[in-house]
Amino acid sequence: MADKIRYGGQAVMEGVMMRGTKSIATVVRRPDGTLAKSVHPLHPIYTGRWRKMPLVRGDIAMLEATVLGAEALMFSTGIALEEPSDEKPETEEKKGSSGGPMIWIMLLLSMALAVCMFSLLPLFLTRWILPGMQGSLAFNLLEGVLRLGIFLIYLRAVSFMPDIRRTFAYHGAEHKTIHAYEAGVELTPENVQKHTTAHARCGTAFLLAVMLIAILIFSIVGELSWWWLLASRILLLPVIAAIAYEVTQWAARHEKNLLAKIMIAPGMWLQRLSTRHPDDQMVEVAITALKEVLIADGVIPAETPVAPPEAAG
Question: Which pTM value belongs to this model?
Answer without folding.
Answer: 0.87
